[in-house]
Amino acid sequence: MAPVEPGWVASLVDAGVLEPRGAGPEAWLFPASDVVRARAVARLLRDLDVNLEGAALILELVEERRRLERRIALLERLLENERAGGAVQACATAAERAAVSAPA
């Protein structure tokens, strides 16, 4: 992977695309998932010719759509279990119940 310019990283942080941990730029740490986010933003900037704020908004909307699709799939499985005669509480794991009740 090519080196990343510190100014580029700072601009992604300023736009809310990346959320580093650490006291300042010299101590910032990023989870691996932020590499995926940064690459997605770079592709949006290059391929769609949007500005950084537009790319950040697109990324946020795509991620929200994925979260909603996962919730819908879970709710459909729970509904199917209920229709099949099983109790929703008995079929759902604690994690599934938490996902359904968690705010979007």
Spatial gap, N to C terminus: 34 Å
Q: List SSEs in N-to-C order.
A: HHHHH
Mean pLDDT: 85
Name the CATH class: Mainly Alpha
| Estimated helix fraction | 55-70%
The CATH topology assignment is: Multidrug-efflux Transporter Regulator, Chain: A, Domain 2
In short:
The protein is built from 5 helices and no strands. It has 104 residues and is mainly α.
Helix-strand blueprint:
Layout: H1 6-14, H2 33-48, H3 52-83, H4 88-91, H5 94-101
Helix pairs in contact: 2-3
Features:
104 residues, mainly alpha, Multidrug-efflux Transporter Regulator, Chain: A, Domain 2, 5 helices, elongated
Structural commentary:
- The protein has one domain (6-101): Multidrug-efflux Transporter Regulator, Chain: A, Domain 2 (Orthogonal Bundle), CATH 1.10.1660.
- It is 66% helix and 0% strand.
- It contains five helices and no strands.
- The longest helix has 32 residues, at 52-83.
- The relative contact order is 0.09.
- The model has no long low-confidence stretch (mean pLDDT 85).
